[in-house]
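Write out this protein's structure.
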Amino acid sequence: MTKHILKHVFCCILICSSISLSYANNTQMLTNKVSVAGQMNTAKFSQLMRQGFKSVIVNRPDQEIGNAVKVSELRNIAEKSQVSVIYQPVSSGKISQTDILEFAKYYNELPKPILMICRSGARSSALFHQAKSQGLLHE
């Protein structure tokens, strides 16, 4: 298999393994520095802010169908806990190299631990794993 095909197979495995996150609606720790969460509401987000996250990256576009809470609402809650929120919308199933590079920049600059949010957690997980596999994340 070529390197290109292996990369796509790896990403598909990551996405499929993350699908269970959407059913459990839980937060999943990827490393001790980053976790992902699926479908969000203000009560769940408020609870997560009490768990010690220092930064949040929202990968779900505000206008995406089924989105129950806008990034501005999350930002208002996070600011009360002195947590910064970055809005980096990524289209489901369409992660670009530009998205990966932008995420890596945020990851390397933001205080940890970071909470990443999208619909199921799969998109954020894939973004993290692709940046990591490219050696873009400073651990």
